[in-house]
Amino acid sequence: MAGSSFFPSVIKSFQDQYPGISIKLMEYGAKKVEEHVSQGLLDVGVVLWPIDNDVFDSFQLVEDHMRVVMHPSHPLAASKQISLNELSSERFILFNSEFALHDRIIDECQTIGFIPHIVYESSQWDFIGKMVAENLGIAMLPARICQLLDSGEVCTAALCEPIIPWRLAMVWKRSGYLSLATREWIAFNKQRFAQKEEQLD
Fewest beta carbons less than 10 Å away: which of 106, 155, 178, 197? Predict the structure, then answer.
């Protein structure tokens, strides 16, 4: 989920520049990515902040905010902003427990005094969007992912009070060995995403 909106173009640019380096992609939730990187099973991973700086070296890739995804018939569908408290009686469709965002949303709900009623969980953002389109519940997704949803099937509004940040970081094991190819991949991404931030400033 994390990089589906931007990593294909990054990989294409990297392969054009380094045709002799092959990239093997593994799709996991952030929790498993952290576990596999810390165990040396993955060289590099993309996870959600915050991270354990004693275990990982890292840099931030992107920062985004969460939006509430609703069926067009939902009473709040015309809202520009929605507080989390307004969703206390809703049916929630979340990423499954392998994803850090799963626990983040539950924790935020509990902090303001309610336990979310989770009706479905999935590992795929597009499937979550389709479930909302069938009016099976509401979801919370990063704004850049919401841009990929069919605006004719769902409505979205900014989540406020609290604002739940969505920050992606590239991580690698602090004490681990990094091959030349891995170091090139990290350096390429650092430069690429630094340029994106400069373009946004």
Answer: 197
> Please, what sign has the CA dihedral across residues 163, 164, 166, 171?
positive
Give the C-alpha separation, 29 to 60, whole Å: 17
Of 98, 100, 96, nearest to 48 (Cα)? 100
- Check residue 165 and give its pLDDT: 86
Residue 1 lies in a domain: no
Q: What region does 121 belong to: left with phi over 0, alpha with psi -120 to 50, or beta?
A: beta
pLDDT at 26: 87
Q: Look up residue 165 and give its two tokens.
A: 């940040």
Q: Flag whether 113 is in a domain.
A: yes
- The backbone torsions φ and ψ at residue 168, rounded to the nearest 5 degrees and listed phi first, read -100, 140
pLDDT digits (tens, 9 = 90+) for 68-101: 999 999 999 999 999 999 999 999 999 999 888 9
Among 43, 52, 53, 49, CA closest to 62: 49
> Do residues 40 and 171 lie in contact, with contact meaning Cβ atoms separated by under 8 Å?
no
CA–CA dist 97, 78 (Å, integer):
30
Count structural domains, the chain.
Answer: 2
- Parallel, antiparallel, or unpaired for β 81-83 and 155-160? parallel
Average pLDDT of the segment spanning 3-15: 82
d(CA 166, CA 7): 16
CA 39 to chain centre: 22
Give the residue numbers spanning the domain of 12: 7-62+166-200
